[in-house]
Amino acid sequence: MDFFSIYLSIFVFFISIMEFISQELDTYVCSHTDAESLLLQELNRKTHVNVLNPRMLSGHYQGRVLSMISQMIQPKTILEIGTYTGYSALCLAEGLIENGKLFTIDVNPELEEFVDSFIQRSLYKDKIVQLIGEGLKIIPALNEMFDIVFIDADKRNYASYYDIVFDKVKKGGYIIADNVLWSGKVTQEYDKSDLDTKILKDFNTKVQNDSRVENVLLPIRDGLMVARKLI
C-alpha cells in the first residue's frame, strides 16, 4: 500500500469515529447551516493541505455554532486557549462588540505566520491578539476579565486551564471546552494507559460537580462543554 493510501485510510478512520450521527443527517444539518465565509473556506482548505492533524480544525458546522454562541453573548473580551490555525478564533470574533478583543494563545510558533496571514485579511484584524507560549504561564499575566473562554488545547491541562481562568471570567460569563466526548471514548471501557480519556472523563465530572457554574454538554462534533459562571 502506498503512502497516500495509508494516509487516506487513517483519515477516513478518524472521520468515522467522530461521527455521532449518520452521514446523511450530518449532510442535511450542514446544508441547513450558513456557509463559511470565503476566507474561512480558504483557511479550511489550506489547513487540510498544508498542516498536520487537520482534524483539529473546528470546521464549518462547529465554527458556525461558535459564531452563533458568540453573537448571542455579544462579548467584549474572549480568551482562546489553543489557536491551531485560527479558524475558531475568526469564528468567535464575529460576535465581538465594537472595540472588543480576542486573545488567542498557542504553544506552536511554527503556525504563527500562517495564522497571522488569515487574521490580517479578516474583518477582525484589529480585534485579535495572537500570543505564542504556554497558556499556563501567559494567562496569569493577562489583565483582563473575559466574557468567553474557549479551551481547545492539550487535553492533559484542561482542568488546570479551567482553574486558572475561572477568576478571570466575568459573572455570567462562559467557559467552553472542546473535544470532551473524545470520539465517544468517555462512555467506553478504556485501557489504563489511555490517560487522555481518563483526564477528559475527570474534567467532565469536575465541571458537572462545580456548584459555581451551570453547564450543558453539547454533542456537537467531538463534544462542547458549556459552563456559565454563576458567582
Written description of the protein model:
It is a single chain. By secondary structure, this protein is an alpha/beta fold. The protein has one domain: Rossmann fold (3-Layer(aba) Sandwich), CATH 3.40.50. It is 41% helix and 19% strand. It is built from 9 helices and 7 strands. It has helices at residues 3-17, 23-31, 38-50, 59-73, 87-93, 112-119, 135-138, 158-166, 195-208, and strands spanning 77-81, 101-106, 128-132, 146-151, 169-178, 213-218, 224-229. A 7-stranded mixed beta sheet has the order 3-2-1-4-5-7-6, sandwiched between helices. Strand 1, helix 5 and strand 2 (101-106) form a beta-alpha-beta unit. Helix 4 packs parallel to helix 5 (87-93).
Helix content: 40-55%
Strands of the widest sheet, in order across it, are 3-2-1-4-5-7-6
Structural class: alpha/beta
- Helix segment tally: 9
